[in-house]
Amino acid sequence: MKYKKNRNFVTGAALTGVMLLFVLIGAVWTPYDPEAMDRTAKLAGVSFSHLMGCDNFGRDIFSRVLKGSGTTLLTAVGTVGIGTLCGVIVGAFTGYFGGAVDEIFMRINDVLFAFPSILLGLVVISLLGSGNFNVVIALGIAFIPSFARIVRSEFIRCKNMDYVRSARLAGAGHLRIMFVHILPNTVTVLLSSVMIGFNNAVLAEAGMSYLGIGTQPPHASLGRMLSDAQTYLLSSPGYALFPGIVLIWMVLGFSLLAEGLKEG
Amino acid sequence: MKYFTKKLAGLLVTLLVVSFLVFIAFAVIPGDPATAMLGTEATEARLEALREELGLNAPLMVRYLRWIRDILQGDFGRSYRYNMPVMSMIGDKLPVTLTLTAISFALIVLISIPLGVACARYAGGVLDHVIVVADQIIMAVPPFFSGILITLVFGLLLHLFVPGGYVSWQQDWLSFLGYMIFPSIAVALPKSAMAVKLLRTAILSETKLDYVRTAYSRGNGTKAVLYRHVLRNALIPVITFLGMALADMVAGSIIVEQVFNIPGLGRILLTSISNRDYPVVQAIIVCIAFLVIVVNFLVDLLYKAVDPRITLE
After folding, report:
1. CB contacts < 8 Å between A and B, how many?
2. Would you call A119 an interface residue with chain B, using a CB distance cutoff of 8 Å?
3. What would the pLDDT profile of A130-182 be if each residue is shown by its tens digit?
4. How large is the ipTM?
5. B-chain residues within 8 Å CB-CB of A108?
6. Is this structure's pTM higher than 0.90?
7. Same domain for B178 and B240?
8. Is B287 among the domain residues?
9. Domain count, chain B
10. CA of A140 to nearest chain B CA: how many angstroms apart?
11. What's the average model confidence in pLDDT over B58-72?
12. Whole-number CA gyration radius for chain A
């Protein structure tokens, strides 16, 4: 296993592994109902019964962080899924065939790529209306250009290689060459950009829910918790710190994995 | 000169394509601007009159050209919600966000270049290790969370500024800048971390090249080689990065404004999105897109200045 000595990869995999475990636990079990309010426990501090304390409604923060990180991760999976799928299709066709269509697509792509994804997401949200599902679509669309760009350049690099020529001589059609012959050869590059995609998607989702777009209360989301926690920053700093640390943990894991894959 | 004209032509084409995309995106959404402005109880005759007045009955291309002409004259249309010119709504908000972005940008340059050089110079040492690890962590901190941490530490615990105590620049520009420093740090942190990393890698890979050995063999000292030869080449990827980061920083500023309660473009964009006040959203997007494209153009010109070898393809 060539990744064994790769320190970034190992650290990233460990961080992400713990995170996934955390999210899985949150999916099946939380110590309290994350939406249950308890008047007697308003802004309670850290204790054995409430590992991360309670928020201003007396909801258990640990339970909410468990549930909220699940939401964030799920949104990221959807976002990266849409981005990768559409990006691969656009990138494959434009890279493989080239020509005028490619030229136009790339002009548009260049600008969209330079445009911050969270703003692109906000534009789509303003057209579609807010809500959790729309955030996935909005960010997914915003992520297409970066994937399309990477896949396109890989296809341009590969399309005249010997194995492609021989496949062509053997009578393989364009679609078969594109998706059966070339695509598997782009996997290493694609995998590391998928990890960067996760990194960015988690950040974008958190940013959007911080702004109050996306997950609506009373459902838990990390960004929303951070925005609510700001009012109580001095009296209960844990309310902001714990969701923030989990968020950093998640992003750090993905970014180290991306680094590791790039090196390996 | 040929380089400049070619790039300028590219800039104009991109501007046209992008403005058309923005126009189309907001033209095809379901919902009628006339109804949005007058409400659902308006009579058909009044709606029709307003549509005619707004020029909504004209063909799409004509509307696009009129829209472009109005923008060039500084007219971004009227807000559906407040029935006032969009320009007067965003006119004094834009400088606030741009100041925030500009200070952050200056901070990034001031922080990342010395740190990146120091890292590369003492590569493998303790300082280098500490910075590399700290770098990786800082990159993972979203600006709004570092904003919250800065509010907690510098605002609430050390009392260096009053959280939420924004002063507009018309009132007192010195207090305005003093307040803006803190959100700027939040915006600048993750980008500085990336720039440090990039510069460090670039310098280390440049130092392995032949011209560096030649420079040494001619009797230059470490400092002279580093600053006069290596840094100039190593800065190229950093310039690319900074150009691309600028757009992200505008987006970052819009979020961080919410943390520090700054009435910039961010708040007006968010309220317009929830009100479905499309002309305002459209105007803000056009402004930001314009900024992004122009900055990319300037970066291209800067390349040429730093490295005269660069030509078109």
Report:
1. 104
2. yes
3. 777 888 998 998 889 889 989 999 999 888 889 988 988 998 888 898 888 89
4. 0.87
5. 17, 21
6. no
7. yes
8. no
9. 2
10. 17
11. 86
12. 22
